[in-house]
Amino acid sequence: MVRFDSLYRFFVFYLLALSFVSGLVSASEGKARIFVVDSYHSEYLWSQATHNGMQKCFLENGYLDNDEQSSDLWEFNFVETDRAIIQKEWMDTKKKNSFTQIAKSTHDISLKIRNFMPDILLLGDDNAARYIGAEFLDTDMDIVFWGINGLPLKYGFLDSLENPGHNITGVWQSGYHKESLELLKALVPEATTYGIVSCDSETTRPKIKQLKALESLGDSPLSLNGVVQTNSFSQFKKEVLALAETVDAFFVLNHDTLMNDEGKHVPMLEVGNWYLSNIRIPETSHEGQFVKEGMLCTANDSGYNQGFEAARIALDILGGNAKAKNTPVITPKRGPFMVNTQRAKSLDISLVDNMDIIEELVHESAALSQ
User: Fold this and answer.
1) For FRET with 16, which of 83, 133, 174, 298 sits at 20 to 30 Å CA-CA?
2) Could you tell me where the DSSP H helices lie in 245-353?
3) Mean pLDDT for each 10-residue chunk of the chain (370 residues)?
4) Do the Cβ atoms of 253 and 290 come closer than 8 Å?
5) Are 135 and 163 in contact (CB under 8 A)?
6) What is the layout of strands, in order, in the sheet containing 283-285?
7) pTM of the entire predicted model
8) What structural domains and CATH numbers belong to the chain?
């Protein structure tokens, strides 16, 4: 009798458990399955901006139910809402950027994507688009990218920007380099020459080409007179100090793949702290994250806009209103003209006469707060 009761209780528990699991599966059926891959890491200011834009679009369109779910997605890289199941992964390629490390990250994340079986895949920035995108090109799953630097045709995924022709489309960074130089010239009219300061990465190489093209076309507001492009932090410091003696200003591009002499990654804000503490000439940049870091100004190629527009395209596709193969690739409108007041004060630059063109003031320096 005891054995019968035990078997009976086990059988009842089994049926209840099976019913519970079936209920969970049933509750999840019909929800959009969205997988997001970011090329970088969560501390990176650009990735924070793109994520904020993406989740704002999800929230406005009902794929996130409330701000708490937005916070959960950021904190846990996963959330289930009334309409969607969203998972996010980070490639961390600013710090782990060797071929072997990128190959491992690509393999591991691609396996997670296949197990998740998403309805749509969002890929943030070049490395995710280039490597993860290649794994799923011409599959049944539509893909939307953001943040590709320079023309996305370079990866061979698209027939054209107007008519992609494959299962991938998205948002690219055309850059507002000329506008950033014009803003710098307005703030510092006496500046006539500038140099480029940059790490050597997938992100920066197209931007250096774009700035050089402005110079060769005679379309640059300042004359380009030197380039620092290296992933050695010690070499970076040496060359930046030397170039600062020969130019009036800098165009500061990304500086997030630098290594110290022991081969360890140097965080971007640590590089920025050294730069801001040692360089006494003004600079412009191409993204708002660098003004928040502490650089003087930018015509912001907005990460927020990149993430928002990519999410908007993805939701159009999920809603059955579009397919990636015939959705044109776009570049968002410019973000605000931004100026860091702390940097302006340290360089004795008055902003009074230019308040009519400045659209956003930043009063802190993330790098100097380190």
Assistant:
1) 83
2) 268-278, 288-293, 303-318, 341-346
3) 46 46 52 98 95 98 97 97 98 94 98 98 97 97 95 94 97 94 98 98 94 97 98 98 98 97 97 98 97 98 96 97 96 95 98 97 95
4) no
5) no
6) 223-229, 193-198, 249-252, 283-285, 297-299, 337-340, 360-362
7) 0.83
8) 31-174+303-326 (3.40.50.2300), 177-300+336-362 (3.40.50.2300)
